[in-house]
Amino acid sequence: MFLKRKIFCTNQLIVLFMLFCANLMFSQKQFDDDDIYKNAAKNLYAHPEKTITVSEYLSINADSDEERSKALNLKAEAQILQGNYIVALNALLESLHLNSENDDSPAVLRTNLILSELYRKLGIIPKAEEKLNFVEEKINHNATENPNKTSLYIDFLTAKSALLYEQKKYDEAIKVFDERLLEIYSHQFQYPISKAYNQLAKTYGIIKQWDDSAKYAGKSLQFSLESGLGENYLAYAELERAKANFGKKNKQQYLSEVHQLLASSEKVYDVVLKKNIHQFLADFYLSEGDNSKYQFHNLKYLELNESIILSQQKASDLILSLTENDLKVKDNQRYKTNHILIWVICFAIIILGLVFWFRFRTKQNYNNYKEYIKKLKNKQQKSQMLVPKTESVEEVSKTPQFIPEKTEQILLEKLLAFENGTNFTKKSLTLQSMAKELDTNTRYLSEIVNKHKQKNFNSYINELRVNYIINKLRNEPAFLNYKISYLAEESGFTSHTSFSTVFKAVTGIPPKEFISFIKKEVSLTH
């Protein structure tokens, strides 16, 4: 009896310990996901593509509908920046469906706010007003009393002003803002305050009140710098300030800002902002009489404008053909199939193990890749040096001398010239043909290669061919898109299989993976 009781107590302790560990792991995951979300939101304007990837991860791994809705909202904002309006619309409608029973949660209000801005961009003003009215009804009466909703409230004011701006109600768009409120929260919510000041600068600019426009653009720039949003976001304020100084004919100011906007035009990800920058630059160069630069920026503006209009039209057509309720029905049907995930869990565990193994192997291969590239660069630097004098040849020579020193020196010089050429890519190349080409005999050539290259003739030629194609891949980007069979042909191998086998033997990495590492380097440098 005592033994049974002891076993029972022990089992209880084990269960409690497991529950404690599970709770600890769950809490840690929540903290980690929250940090990931904050970093992704901070990098929204600088790296929208990365933000999309992170938001999709958070959406899949969310522990609640609220968390998933936040991730979908973030994804939608990034997609809107890139002009992918249909993808953004679907993400937002899915977010609404998740929280249909909790319509005053911060996530739902944010979803409706983003939807309003999307509808405004698409020119569907009634729907934009409908969403804004919904947000106003839920938030306006207690916004500043709830810190969690204050930031959202400031964004709501900015969205409302933008909608009035779109309707050409410029005086009302300015009166939306309470400057006292903006000042109170300026150091607490730099990001939304910066957007609000930028909207004011834009509105004053359209009615040609340039001094006020420049003032608010300057404030927007100041808060953007303080919040550390980076140059991709600063460009919004820089454009409005440049337009204001251009309108005031303050040439000294706008000339320096034009230089900054030229750099920004290549870096910003917001397609609408990029379009507006090129439009301003086209106007500027036209006023300066620089016809070639005017034509360049005007063409860029027209291309972007056409692309945006096409994307807007597709999204508008989708909205007209499908109501939100239609999409919700489809979502309900899709969510009913989620029970299949139970059957997938076991399989997912196996896949997870394979992923960890693959990541470890990839990391190891990437380190090998970097080491090989480093050795290749060192070898190329050495190959540019003069061939050693006869004395140094004597020093490194540890085998009986069968070749006259002068002949050996001449052969080394010819071998260096051969390596710097491309004759080693000839498929018909043999020890005999190369000896004939270098005006020597096979015994001399074989001994020189063995002695100075520390490998046999076939290995020597194969390594030259592999290094040749690696240099092509690294220095001529077009080669990164060619098939392996073409690379094999280009470097002198008789088949795809022999090329792949030799390439891995020389570098330790299969050619496809090696090429993926080069592509990774290229993307990082750009």
TrEMBL record:
Q: Which residues form the HTH araC/xylS-type domain?
A: 423-517
Q: Which PROSITE patterns match?
A: HTH_ARAC_FAMILY_2
Q: Name one Pfam family in it.
A: HTH_18
What Gene Ontology terms describe what this protein does at the molecular function level? Answer: DNA-binding transcription factor activity; sequence-specific DNA binding
Question: Which InterPro entries does the entry mention?
Answer: Homeodomain-like_sf, HTH_AraC, TPR-like_helical_dom_sf, TPR_rpt
- Where are the membrane-spanning stretches? 7-26, 340-360
Q: What are the record keywords, sorted? A: DNA-binding, Membrane, Transcription, Transcription regulation, Transmembrane, Transmembrane helix
Official protein name in the record = Two-component response regulator, YesN/AraC family, consists of REC and AraC-type DNA-binding domains
Q: Which organism is it from?
A: Epilithonimonas zeae
